[in-house]
Amino acid sequence: MSNFPIYTVNREEEEGSDYPAGQSQGDVFAIRRGYPGSLEGERLLAYKRKLHSPRSPWRGSATVTNLTERDPMSSVTSTPATKGLEGIVATNSSICYIDGDRGVLAYRGIDIHELADHSTFEETCYLLWFGRLPNRSELKDLQGRLAQERHLDPAIIQFLREVPSTALPMDVLRTAVSALAFYDADDKKNDHEANVRKAIRLTSQIAMIVAAYDRIRKGKPVVEADRSISHAANFLLQLNGTKPSPTAERALDIALILHADHELNASTFAARVTAATLSDMHSAMTSAIGALKGPLHGGANESVFRILQAIDREKADPVEYVRNMLAQKKKVPGFGHRVYHTEDPRATHLRAMSRDLGRSSGQPQWYDMSEKIEQFVKADKKLNANVDFYSASTYHTLGIDEDLFTPVFAVSRISGWAAHVIEQLDDNRLIRPRAEYLGPPYPNHYVAIEKRG
Ligand SMILES: CC(C)(COP(=O)(O)OP(=O)(O)OC[C@H]1O[C@@H](n2cnc3c(N)ncnc32)[C@H](O)[C@@H]1OP(=O)(O)O)[C@@H](O)C(=O)NCCC(=O)NCCS
């Protein structure tokens, strides 16, 4: 049992405090039992001890106005974790709001539907990194900075040429992003401004790496970047070798907006954990890309399309195919979500895009199959389609190969990862939770090897 009862406090800032406003409610801390001094002094001292880490910008003092003792658990932990940390609130953040019951997703409070209808990926990046929508000149400035960063060191292109031809694009991206640090002018810097510069640079570079590697592995020449067009248009240009139609450009732009951030999903959590050790932005992005790759996370969109392809190839009935998967206790990629208990609001847009692009590109079969699968899985398993289900057919009709779907997810999510790393480092504390120990009881003595059975 704990020597440290856990308290939740509300506090009032004293004059001169520069601790960020709005973070004063519900802070959690532990007070050593029997700490000398008056109760009030104990509270304040303990409180100060928690906030005065060397990197904390807070330099004021505070009076605790409300103190609620919580049940102590093992060691200094608060509650035993749920499996997969389901429902655990693991950080404070001002970036992304999700209401899983109502199907609400908002960046900085702005509903994703409004952003998908009216914003651009560049403007959404500004919103995520700077906390508000830009004015015209701020947006123009960020667009210019992103375009200026459309450049890869020749060593990165050389690396892309030298990886084994069997290398998966997601693995190539992960390793190339790690290598980008060697050629980054801000490599040794970890301050706020340097990390904003790195966010901008990495956003441009990740898109270029994905496009360049696809060209190289197909034996095609790498396409020069065009600094006069949007991020989405330049990505499609560098990928396909031709400027996209306005419809294709806007479709990708919307997909990038929809994928840009999603609170404390697995890859973002990985990025924040890495950043919180005071490692660096490139390390955090490398961690995040590794986490995104898995089929339970960003890798699901590729799995979805492999199923659609198999159904098409075998001329199978989509419903029977999926019914068979479920009978074998297999999960259907693109369905279910840890947080949403209703329609994933991103799927609403991707469904419409998949339908419209499928029809306009003369490939309606992918949407038609998807729709039948969605209706069946919803009726049979009560599971909703998530962001990955319709992004598969959407990306395919944009001319993107299926093993690039997850890298394209990263092309967008870099914006959210970077926003979270910047937020983490602006008020950092090492992320180091505890594990509930379930192993052999202590003490479990060492047995000499000759005496073991
Ligand atoms: C997203 C996901 C990982 C969430 O996982 P989770 O919150 O841990 O939920 P669980 O895996 O515990 O699933 C809960 C139940 O629903 C079922 N379920 C969840 N997703 C399912 C799916 N896609 N297909 C079939 N059954 C599914 C599980 O089998 C489990 O059933 P059980 O209680 O009878 O064992 C999970 O829904 C999944 O694996 N989906 C497919 C992969 C995917 O699309 N990932 C991208 C997410 S954006």
Concise structural overview:
The protein is built from 17 helices and six strands.
Radius of gyration equals: 25 Å
The termini sit apart by 35 Å
Give the CATH class of the largest domain: Mainly Alpha
Q: What compounds sit in this structure?
A: coenzyme A
**CATH H-level name of the largest domain... which superfamily?**
Citrate Synthase, domain 1
**What is the count of DSSP helices, taking H or I runs of 4+ residues?**
17
Task: Give the amount of beta strand, in percent.
Answer: 5-15%
Percent of residues in helices: 40-55%
CATH architecture of the largest domain: Orthogonal Bundle
Order of SSEs: EEHEEEEHHHHHHHHHHHHHHHH
CATH-defined fold name of the largest domain: Citrate Synthase, domain 1
Which structural category do the helix and sheet elements fall into?
A: mainly alpha
Description:
This protein has 453 residues and is mostly helical. It has 17 helices and 6 strands. The strands form 2 sheets. It has a 3-stranded antiparallel beta sheet, covered by helices on one side. The protein has a 3-stranded antiparallel beta sheet with strand order 4-5-6. Helix 8 crosses helix 9. Coenzyme A binds at residues 84, 296-297, 300, 331-338, 381, 383, 386-388. Coenzyme A (COA) is lined by residues 84, 296-297, 300, 331-338, 381, 383, 386-388.
Topology:
Blueprint: E1 6-13, E2 25-30, H1 39-51, E3 62-70, E4 96-99, E5 104-107, E6 110-111, H2 112-118, H3 121-130, H4 136-148, H5 154-162, H6 169-180, H7 192-217, H8 231-240, H9 246-259, H10 266-276, H11 281-292, H12 300-313, H13 318-327, H14 345-360, H15 365-381, H16 387-397, H17 405-426
Antiparallel strand pairs: 1-2, 1-3, 4-5, 5-6
Helix pairs in contact: 2-9, 3-17, 4-7, 5-7, 6-7, 6-11, 7-8, 7-17, 8-9, 9-14, 9-16, 9-17, 10-11, 10-17, 11-17, 12-16, 13-15, 14-15, 14-16
Bound molecules: coenzyme A.
